Amino acid sequence: MEPLSKDAKSNPCAKANLFSQIFFCWLNPLFRIGYKRRLEEGDMYRVLPEDGSERLGEELQSYWDCEIQKADKELRKPKLTKAIIKCYWKSYAVLGVFTLVEEVIKVVQPVFLGKLIQYFERYDPANKQELYEAYGYAAGVSLSAIILAIMHHLYFFHVQRAGMKLRVAMCHMIYKKALSLSSTAMGQTTTGQIVNLLSNDVNKFEEVFIFLHFLWVGPLQAAAVIGLLWQEIGPSCIAGMATLLFLMPLQTLFGRLFSSFRTKTSVLTDSRIRIMNEVVSGIRIIKMYAWEKPFSALVSEVRRKEISKIMSSSYLRGLNMASFFAASKIIVFITFTVYVLLGNTMNASRVFVAVSLYNAVRLTVTLFFPAAIEKVSESKVSIRRIKNFLLLHEVVKHSPSVQPEKNEEKTLEVQDLMCYWDQVSKLLSPTPQKSSLLSSILGELPKDKGVMKISGELAYAAQQPWVFPGTIRSNILFGKDIQPQRYERVVKACALKRDLELLPDGDLTVIGDRGATLSGGQKARVSLARAVYQDTDIYLLDDPLSAVDAEVGRHLFEQCVCGLLRNKPRILVTHQLQYLKAADQILVLKEGHMVARGTYTELLQSGLDFTSLLKRDEDEEPTSPGTDAPPGPRSRASRSRTMSQNSVRSHTSSLQSFQDEPVHMVAEETRSEGTIGIRLYLKYFRAGANVLVLITVMLLNLLAQIAFILQDWWLAYWTAEQEKLDNLSSNVTNGVMQHQPNATQELNLDFYLGIYGVATLVFGFMRSLVMFNMLVRAAQNLHNRMFKCILRTPVRFFDVNPIGRVLNRFSKDVGQLDSMLPWTFVDFTQVFLQILGVVAVAASVIPWILIPVLLLLIGFLFLRRYFLQTSRDVKRLEATTRSPVFSHLSSSLQGLWTIRSCKAEERFQKTFDEHQDLHSEACFLFLTTSRWFAVRLDGICAIFVTITAFVCISFILSYLALEAGAVGLALSYAITLMGMFQWGVRQSTEVENMMTSVERVVEYTELENEAAWETQKRPPPDWPSQGLITFDRVNFSYSPDGPVVLKNMKATFRPREKVGIVGRTGAGKSSLISALFRLAEPEGRIYVDSILTSELGLHDLRQKMSIIPQDPVLFTGSMRKNLDPFSQHSDEDLWSALEEVQLKAAVEELPGKMETVLAESGSNFSVGQRQLVCLARAILRRNRILIIDEATANVDPKTDELIQKTIRDKFRDCTVLTIAHRLNTIIDSDRILVLDAGRIHEYDEPYVLLQNQDSMFYQMVKQTGKAEAAFLLQTAKQRPPQIVFLDFVSSYFGRSCSEGVFRGP
């Protein structure tokens, strides 16, 4: 794998001085760049050494390994939590000191404030001593504010970074584990689950680290505050604290509930992502079968359950949040009600000290403490899930590869070997034994008993070719250094030379996810070239010749298997019997047993059943396997030359037409620019609610805020009235004095209790719940729209977008919409309204306060705009650098056996770490830029507090009458504003950053759609009754700007006709099928039974044609769902179809028979069996048109024969189009269509084509070898004449027929 080519800048944080570290000044140059232009990956700073993925992962891995060993000794289950604590407790404990200092200051600040207000209450112009003290207290308030600003952000930066380190380390361990999972373990997990662990579960660590310290700081701070309050207002503080303490257990309960919802949600999310993974991987098949609706229903159902759990946890969050905002009001209300009822009189200093103290403790007790409980309970769930994954069974390497001495022979010895797959995978029919033998040699299949000795290194080419995202060169080199001559020889031997010449960037062309840019044959050749280039001692080749046509197959066999590798031991699994003569030894397997072994001649003489397969080969001379071909005999002299000519030609001719094969380049992941527009917010809100609900939500918010404001205003009013009363008491007679206060107290208390208390509670809670409901609904609807759009977008989208990129939107971005965004949004709304309230109240008491507030606001808005220019780009970079992590994981899981056979685990781990480090660079920048912003905001606020404190003193010195209540309000609000203003602005930027997820999801809800599934024009119910297909001047291209791959094609496939379609790689065979199924819209006209297909809905068209695809796809779910997702057929039909394809016995052996849930992608079935399931699907559909797309390429002759026989019996009344590389599968067709470079080269009966020695078909037959060619000619000769007259005549008289329907021989 090539390294991630990017020279990152060195990280200035490493060399920054103390001042720069505290205020994050080292980021200034980045902000200047970000303000001028869009940030690119090259602008990011290299990750700090201590944050490197490999270093962190290996450190945590060592603790986990120790924990496993210790647990084994103590006979208990290992605990991942212990390993995490041992690894991180020291560095994390130090951060606790920060929290402690910060919380102490929060408690001390109100004490200074109280003393300052007392000075105003007892103001005496003559007392200079008190004035100096007042200056001291003002300085205390200011210093507290400044130190808080600095401490808070240093703490947050370091805890978030600690959380990031743990996340990175965990991802490293998860990937490392994924690389060593055994086949059994792979059956117990899915790609979807592993992606979910990497995208959602590990994020919980970042969240929990932020709040964890508040679990012990909260109670401590509460105790300190109770002490101070007792001094100020005596026993009545207990009433307020009781309310606070009542909230704590309530929130612990919420945390427990939250944890149970989280567990259930995780399982459903896994399941949804797994289905998504399968849908995206198998989208071609889903479209061709017109199965979008059942899959849509499946995902919608899982999503509905997931959303119901998310909704419940959101309501809990809403209650938590509402209790946080309402708590302070309720507490103050209860405290002072009790205080006054106990006969005390109110005064400003007491009220505002109490309010400030409650505010200090409220944040910790009602927000951070419950958040800590919630996050701890979430993390426990995640840790449990990750632990279960890390304890899955690993592949046991039976240290077979003994390094032989220099001249010692490389050998492979197998004796009395017995192996078992696990229960669900025990499905052995003709195909998997050969692959099972190879997997046991590779060590993938654990041996039960017997001996396996291997001396030498192994190389392996898999049956289903695997390529990873990267260049073709990196796929072939696979970590080895390039040796130009050797590389050239390998490319030549694997028939890739011509392909590379035709690709835009040669061997530096980037292959998409799952090799989307290459054809099946090219993937097979790249995969083979990789194995050959490894230059190991022993080669295991699992049927590499099946995916290529006969000519290329012969070239690979002669030039590669028997050429370049001739001096190495090779084990070749093949179904193509023409190559057996060249074998030194043949092994015949049947039902897991070796039934014969020997040379070709020995086996022929043994009289085994096996010889029936070889009968047709016996007259070929062993000297030259496959040179001469039928009719014309050749002289012996020309033979050796022909062989080399064949090889030369197979470089060129086999690939002449390659440029017409579509080359899908991988598109760069889109990244939006500029601000998040108001239209996006509207789309988001409208997705969750209609206009009426939106108006209701706005009203509720206003009402709740008014209720909150009235309470604050009431306190100031109350203390002012009390002061007036106290002053009155000295002047007025005793009788009046007694009556007056009671009147105000009684009158207003009732009013206060009745209106404000209830209104605050009702509106406060309602607005939270309604908003959460609206935003979670928006997430649900946007997800559903995105999924619908993904199903409706043309296939080309999936060819140019890697699977990781699509999954990233469905996992990470939807995860943000589900949980983080609603919480942040509701929080922002409430804080924003509170700020408005605070400013309004303060302005009503002291109008001049508006001047600094306005200046503050302008400063903030400018800073916010400056910050967002950079921050948005950093967030978008964080999203796009995350996709490769997922893509790398899912592609590694697909090629696990290849990676392990080449011992490339370390290299893949290193690449994964590089992807992680790139993502960490973006994450680190995101953390630090947020802190850069926050520290500046808080700094401005601290200056504001300082100015307010000193201005109040100077006001009173300049003889402006200031009520103590007013000063109290102004100062306590300045302090509240300090936290709140910056939190509000920060949350607004958080919302905007998270809206990038909405933006990415919305982008996928607006993808281009293919044609409608149903249109006004519906075909008759029995259509197509004949199965007549006409191509009339059809041109076809996969995209508007792509090359034309079918050119001016005119052809007719008659009713009930069996047509074989052949052509070299890239001739346009599969494109013909794509045009028929309208996977992209063709130009020209295609008629089926005289109905123009372009006028029909896609489902009406696709449901009426059956296809057996080249890559058989099964989906996770029961066998029943795989055969019949619409539940249209009875059990008898299903069993009968399975019986037809000889799978009935295999399915009956399964634990749940037809209801057994298959492994991901049906991996517990062999390729041949999956192909048979696809055949059973076709039988069940009973359509008049059947298309077979190289369906027998990966199956053995016996299965091939079974498929051919079933097709002849079951589809005798159908029009069958068969694309094939194996000519024996189509030689008995009624006619053969030969394609070349997207045009029809020949189209006639097989025997007629073989009479013409210049025909392309004749040349192809000739390539298969003398005996095979003779057999093919004989078969073509014996084929019965076509009986289509009666049918044709009746259809002719039945209705007018298009011209040229019948061009008989």
From TrEMBL:
Keywords: ATP-binding, Cell membrane, Lipid transport, Membrane, Nucleotide-binding, Repeat, Translocase, Transmembrane, Transmembrane helix, Transport. Residues 390-616, 1029-1262 form the ABC transporter domain. It is found in: Apical cell membrane; Basolateral cell membrane. Its EC number is 7.6.2.2, 7.6.2.3. It catalyses: glycoursodeoxycholate(in) + glutathione(in) + ATP + H2O = glycoursodeoxycholate(out) + glutathione(out) + ADP + phosphate + H(+); prostaglandin E2(in) + ATP + H2O = prostaglandin E2(out) + ADP + phosphate + H(+); 3',5'-cyclic GMP(in) + ATP + H2O = 3',5'-cyclic GMP(out) + ADP + phosphate + H(+); 17beta-estradiol 17-O-(beta-D-glucuronate)(in) + ATP + H2O = 17beta-estradiol 17-O-(beta-D-glucuronate)(out) + ADP + phosphate + H(+). PANTHER family: ATP-BINDING CASSETTE SUB-FAMILY C, ATP-BINDING CASSETTE SUB-FAMILY C MEMBER 4. Interacts (via PDZ-binding motif) with SNX27 (via PDZ domain); this interaction accelerates MRP4 internalization. This is Multidrug resistance-associated protein 4. It comes from Denticeps clupeoides (denticle herring). The lineage of its organism: Eukaryota, Metazoa, Chordata, Craniata, Vertebrata. The gene is ABCC4.
